[in-house]
Every structure is written in C-alpha cells, then in structure tokens.
Specification:
The chain is about 35% helix and about 20% strand. The chain contains 13 helices and 12 strands.
C-alpha cells in the first residue's frame, strides 16, 4: 500500500519469497557482492531456475514459479497462487491420477522425550494465562513442529520445557522424569538445549571461535576438538570463526547459535524459529543436519512460521491456538486438512490434486498426468 497508494519506493531484502516476490516491480539478485540479475519477477525467476534450478536462490522462489520451471516453463509464467492454479488447470485438464497416497502415521512406543500434561502459565498473577491446559508430547528421533499465530504461547511453551519458566499448574516430564527432579545444571548436561528467537543472547565472547571453544570444553578433551571441527564444517562457519558474533548477519548468527547447542550434544533440542534469516539453500542443508540428529535418537521440537519447511521435513505438526494445541497430525494430513493455514502448493493445487503439500508433490502429480 505504501508503494501503490503513496508512490513510495520500497527496497526489501528477503529470503522468504513466497509472498513478496509477486509484489515486486523489479528483482535484484546479489551473489558474492555482485549484481547478477535485475529484472521483472517473471524474467528474473526464469533466469534463476534455468538449467534445472541450479542457482542458490532458485530453491526459495514462489511455488507456482518453481513448479512452472520444473515442468519445462510452457505458457505464461505464473507468480501468484491464483495464476498458478489457472496455469495448473490448463496444463493438467481433468487429471487421471489426482492424489498421492497418504503416508502412514508414526507409531510411538516407550518413553516420550518430553511430555506436558495440563500445563498452565501466566507471567504475572494479575495477567491473563498464556498457556491454558497445554498437553503435548514428542518422542526420541522425532522432529515435531509447533505452528500458529503470534502470541499464542509457542515460545512460552519452549521456555517452560527448558526450565526457564515455571508453570503454576500441570506437569512436565523430560525423559520420563519430572522436570522438578533435575538439580543444578543436570538438565542441560547432554539433556535439553534451547535456541531462542534472539540468538545474540547465547554469545558472550568477542570472537565466535572462543564462544564455541568454551562450549566444546565441556566435552572430554579427546572429543572436543573433533566435535568442534565437525560442527563448524556442517554449518559452514569456518570463514566466520574470527569474527565478533555481534557483527554477523541475522542468518549467520542463527547458524553460530545452533553450533553452540550442537556442541552440547543434547537429547532434546528446542528450536524457536531456527530458519529465520536463512536462505533456501542452507535450509536444505539444515534439514539434513536435523535428519542426522533424529536418526541418532535426538528429539527436536521446533516453533516455526516457516510452513513450507515444516511440510517438507517435519514428522508431525501441531497447531497452537489460545495457549494450547488444537490439532496435530503428520504433515500431509495436517496441511491438506487446513483451508487457510496451509502451504502455497496445497492452495495452488486444491481442487486439481489431493494430498499435495509441497512443490515436489505437485510436480510429481503433474508428471503422472501430463504426457509428452
């Protein structure tokens, strides 16, 4: 509205392009300090997705544009969900195969990594409740994503699990033990680690390497150096080790803060908006790190507004509203069952395909229907 109604020029720097890309008149792409593209969204998107979408930015393009390019770029390039739906209907017509099979729901046994029962919390006696009878569990080897609007209690729930806040009613168990049974720093010694929304809160040294070494020193000496090298390599932090953490960009701070937590080797990792400030290419790498952690039995509980990431990589999604969980399921059922709070791919393909929640799902179903 600033641009349209007041004729104000707006310069926006952003990694999450789903909503903002179609609004732009021009798109400028920077790479290693150089301008590599400056054109309309449609032409810039086509250039970035050329040669199989090899450019780093192409993975973050809006879903309609990614589907369009993946299927050969025929017809007028769609940017919005509405245009993508019209284009998809024109390409597919009446689909012969209109759905992907629903994945099986995970079956859990044994002791949950974290279990909350009827948890109530308020920040002040006279203040309203933030958590209202919250019940939620997550298991070892699971990536559970908590979604929902602002001020619904998601971050407060993480702080209660981490022992930062204490609910006035209900119970929290970590690894089968009541949270109140943990004494001193026992909870955090290879147990629970929390990545806050503001990663700067985790830094206290003038150089990133000193921050990381301090955390790694908690490990046995023969293990510390190898673990530090492994974590910095996984997160691509080697060029930043000599920098002051306060001088890093938002995305770099997210990576550095995550590195500190991974050096603790926790069994329960709590993540508050971990993809904030990260480009699409690194988010794919981050998903690989999460996958290796869950394969080792680590439980990840992630609060996020990044619907596309949750749809692609989560084992289970839970919707927060008014201080509690109102629905939860594996991602395909979760997002297919939501009309508004769902992915761009689902909104674009609804009425044409069933159970498509990622751009890859839409491309796969198009491949089953469109014959050369």
């Amino acid at each position: 509205r600033l641009n349209r109604e007041l004729s104000t020029t707006v310069l926006l720097s952003e990694h999450r392009l789903e909503e903002v890309f179609p609004l732009a008149d021009k798109v400028a792409v920077l790479e290693r300090g150089r301008l590599v593209c400056f054109d309309t969204p449609a032409l810039a998107g086509a250039m970035l997705s050329r040669e199989g979408g090899g450019h780093a930015v192409s993975a973050g393009l809006p879903t309609p544009l990614r589907v369009y390019c993946a299927l050969g770029g025929k017809g007028e390039c769609p940017l919005t969900i509405r245009d993508g739906r019209r284009w998809l209907e024109g390409v597919v017509g009446v689909p012969e195969a209109d759905a992907l099979p629903l994945p099986e729901r995970p079956v859990h046994s044994g002791t949950p990594a974290v279990e909350l029962k009827e948890v109530w919390f308020k920040y002040d006696k006279s203040a309203p409740d933030v958590l209202r009878g919250l019940s939620f569990s997550a298991w070892p080897g699971e990536l559970a994503c908590i979604l929902g609007g602002n001020a619904t209690g998601k971050t407060t729930a993480l702080s209660c699990i981490a022992g930062v806040r204490r609910p006035y009613r209900g119970s929290i168990r970590i690894g089968g033990r009541p949270l109140s049974d943990y004494r001193g720093n026992e909870l955090y010694r290879g147990g629970v680690a929390l990545l806050p929304q503001n990663p700067q809160a985790l830094f206290n040294a003038n150089r990133l390497i000193d921050d990381l070494r301090e955390v790694a020193s908690a490990q046995p000496k023969e293990r510390a150096a190898a673990l530090l090298e492994q974590v910095t390599a996984e997160l691509g932090l080697a060029p930043l080790l000599g920098a002051n953490p306060g001088d890093l960009s938002g995305g770099e701070q997210q990576k550095a803060a995550l590195a500190k937590l991974l050096l603790l080797e926790p069994k329960l990792l709590l993540l508050d908006e971990p993809t904030k400030g990260l480009d699409a290419q690194f988010k794919e790498k981050l998903a690989g790190i999460f996958s290796s952690l869950t394969a080792r039995g680590v439980c990840l509980v992630m609060v996020t507004h990044d619907i596309e990431f949750a749809a692609q990589y989560a084992h289970r999604c839970a919707m927060f509203f008014d201080g509690g969980v109102i629905s939860e399921d594996e991602p395909v059922r979760f997002f297919s069952g939501n009309s508004f709070y769902t992915t761009a791919a689902n909104r674009m393909s609804r009425g044409v395909f069933k159970n498509a929640v990622t751009s890859g799902d839409v491309v796969k179903l198009c491949g089953l229907n469109v014959k050369e």
